[in-house]
Amino acid sequence: MHIQKYYSHILFLSLLCLVLLLGSSCKKFLAVDLPVNTITAKAVFENEQTATAAVTGIYSQMMPTSLFYSSGGTSIYAGLLADEFYVTNPNNADDIQFFENNLAVNNGILRTNFWYWMYKMNYQANVCIENLTASQELSPELRDRLLGEAKFIRAFNYFYLVNLFGDVPLVTSTDYTLNAVLPRSPVSVVYQQVISDLVDAKSLLPASYPSEGKLRPNKWSAVALLARVYLYQQDWVKAENEATEILSAGTYNLEADLNNVFLLTSKESIWQLMPVETGFNTTVARNLVPTGAASSKPAFAITPWLNTVFSMDDKRKQEWIRSKTVDGEIFNYVYKYKIRNLNLPVTEGYTVLRLAEVLLIRAEARAHQNKDAQAKSDLNMVRSRAGLAETDADNREEILLAIEDERQKELFAEWGHRWFDLKRTNRALTTLSLNKNVQPFALLLPIPQAEILRNPALIQNAGY
Known about the structure:
This protein is mainly alpha-helical. The protein has helices at 5-22, 41-44, 48-62, 69-81, 93-99, 108-134, 140-165, 176-179, 187-204, 219-232, 236-249, 283-288, 304-307, 315-320, 355-367, 372-385, 396-410, 417-424, 428-432, 449-454, and strands spanning 85-87, 269-273, 300-302, 321-326, 329-334, 350-354. A two-stranded antiparallel ribbon has the order 1-3. Strands 2-6 form a two-stranded antiparallel sheet. A two-stranded antiparallel ribbon has the order 4-5. Strand 4 (321-326) and strand 5 form a beta hairpin. Helix 4 (69-81) packs across helix 5 (93-99), helix 7 packs antiparallel against helix 9 (187-204) and helix 15 (355-367) packs antiparallel against helix 16 (372-385).
């Protein structure tokens, strides 16, 4: 986190705007000629076009074509931790450490694809938040929208940081001298910041999307993530209220056809991301779907354990899972995102938030408040879409287990949901012990050793 102030305020923003100029997908957000050679942070946020470019440029950074945390890394690597996937190439040592829940502190993926990338996104959000707050030139409507987006992004990143690493440095400024020696803040303190940012984002963001598609967060994106955060915090009333607010708005609907759920045109999606590289649909499809070659295996195949949780009449098994036989061995793979090849029309958006999760959030929150009939109603909406009969759970414990089971089937291979669900319900050790020996300390990832060497205030997680 040692970043020179000149670089962070001037060079970073210059390069960020240059990325916007060169990236074809970013041009869908905004096409504008920027004075790259003379740009300063103050000037950027006094001009409506360049201020918008600075914020929307973060989304282009969030969707590289490699497995970084925000472009598929969380889905796949947390899926390995939760026994959703296994690694088909025995030579990928760093990947296998995730599957074995035995991460080394010098694991390259851990630092480059997660820690560094997440703090990079947070720093960019902080630059935008500070300068938007100080700007006097932007219209109030645009300033509020951009500020809401930046706060949403910061909250989003910190939600994943605390759920992966536990206590983490809470960086909310661009003061590099302070940030370089920040100690880890307790999870509870980080969550307070996440909630504060999301509450602000909810009030600042309009319900409409500012550009084509759902590639920038709106008010409902903040509401959906806030509902999830309250669920994780076991604030059942607030989780239910936030979920009800978005469900009552009538803006989103479950897609009847499962093949439409992850399209850019999906009626169910609340927020999506799209790679900036021309002809590239999603990074997860590039890693989960094998090529057509007879010898091509999926890099990350579905574990037999996950494959067996679906009944044969479950449409999710029929539509979202495929199999391929290579040298007599059957490999099951995720087929939620289907377009692997390059230079094809971009029709799929990497879905971050969607309505089915909101329904399951409300179902769980209601079950914890003994609202059994209402909880089952929400649960059955998701089950019905999957072609399943209504749940036969008839008491609180059974309903909660049914919801957990449905979350596993509905949200598998998406954004680490299974890993986080097992941890927050204190069922990770007992569930994963059926297939592998997971030690209690491994429920948190290690802080990358290189970061500890750079910042003497950081203390490693116990057990590493």
